[in-house]
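2024-03-11 09:14:02 DEBUG pipeline.ingest accepted 1 chain
2024-03-11 09:14:02 DEBUG pipeline.ingest length=209
2024-03-11 09:14:03 DEBUG pipeline.predict start
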Amino acid sequence: MAAGQEAVSPHAGAELKAILEALIFASPEPLTPKAIFKLLDTEPKEDVQAALEALKREYDRPGGLQIVEVAGGYQIVTRTDLHEWVRRLFHERTTQKLTVQALETLAVIAYRQPITAAEITDVRGVNTSGVLNTLLERHLIKIVGRKQVVGRPFMYATTKEFLIRFGLNDLSDLPRVEDMAEALGLEAPLLVERTPADEELPATEPDAV
């Protein structure tokens, strides 16, 4: 051991793991590795990483809670097979659930983003303005720009809240488009066809009437 270098107590690793568990549990949003390292900037990064891996292994067992990676960060959540019991606790109202129409619209946006309301209507065959408002209110989608065509319609894309709600780390975790299309009764090519990026404009406020 080099002169002046103190031995690391076995308790140090356990304490660091406990700190990480508390931070992840208390964070209102998935806690990213960048945020973790910033919060624990007085600790060696390799020690933090080792404690994080140990914590993940500890939660990788039967129980009521699990650590998941969503939206680029870590979150402690209830296990999916226990969600019905948790819903009973919170007396979830049916109005809080997304309708089939909203799920269909959300799927089209997820696979074809960025996309306009008119393009969504072309895919689904029905007007989606009311559904889009609902998805915007739930923070599952956002306006990301305008399409450079007549009328300069808004273009929509999914949000970080969408990733969190559906337990996705990023959009590459979306189910196979064929499976999603079959489940929603849509044609797969309609979900995967994307709008060219050069048709986007920076997002602006709606024009004054």
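2024-03-11 09:14:41 DEBUG pipeline.report The chain is about 45% helix and 15% strand.
2024-03-11 09:14:41 DEBUG pipeline.predict end
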